[in-house]
Amino acid sequence: MTSITPWRIILLDEIDSTNRSMSDLFARVSAQRLVVVADHQSAGRGRRGRTFWDVPRSTLACSALVRLPQRVAVGLLPVVVGNAVVSAIHHLGAVEATLKWPNDLMVGKAKLGGMLIDGVFDGTVHQLVIGVGVNLTASPTLAEVRDLCCLADAIECGSERDFYSLRDSLLAGFLKELDGQLSHLLHGRTDLLLERYRGFLSTLGRRVQIQYPGRMVVGLAEDVDQEGCLLVRTATSRVAVRVGDIEHLGVVDDR
Q1: In the Cβ-directed half-sphere of 203, how many Cα atoms lie within 13 Å?
Q2: Among 2, 5, 53, 243, whose CB has the most other CB atoms within 10 angstroms?
Q3: What domains can be seen in the chain, in order of their start residue?
């Protein structure tokens, strides 16, 4: 992105959901590059409406408003956001952080955070809300049972880095990386986006089971196509999956 217009950040002590708040602003906000950050979400929302409850002042919860022209391949936005947030986490020292397709941030088998992208198309412009949540100093309570972790443990800083310094450092790094990745998207540099994404994606090279509306796919996660779909080799064919609930069944190659 060639624009150097700074991100405008709204910092809140508590809100029900940053994505919901940002969506409510669509009708009232004319400019893009707006970010809502909350130190506590009382009704956090994940993909497919899943809920979670965080510990106040322990998590980076932010939503960024982005408007993209009709010509842009918005199906690659999860690639853009995943690249940006993992790169920012790596810069802070948590170099073991990876992406689990389609939207989980992981350290090993433990979930570090996640992403959620909402949006509408008004006929000329895609209005998109990019939601990111990263556990910084403690893990939230999820509706489903999951192994969880936090960034402070992943970078082995413990009490040496408090919530506020981790929040500010990660937010600044994420927005800087997001600008770079959005620039690649706007200029059609798909190969650059996917090359980095493949390097972060722990799902590749694993046997997976994916459940999505009307179908279940079991096979080897081989690659990601030019539209950001996961390519899965089943017993009978190669299937492109855009989104679904995934389970890693085991490593097949040496990734």
Answers
A1: 27
A2: 243
A3: 8-200 (3.30.930.10), 206-251 (2.30.30.100)
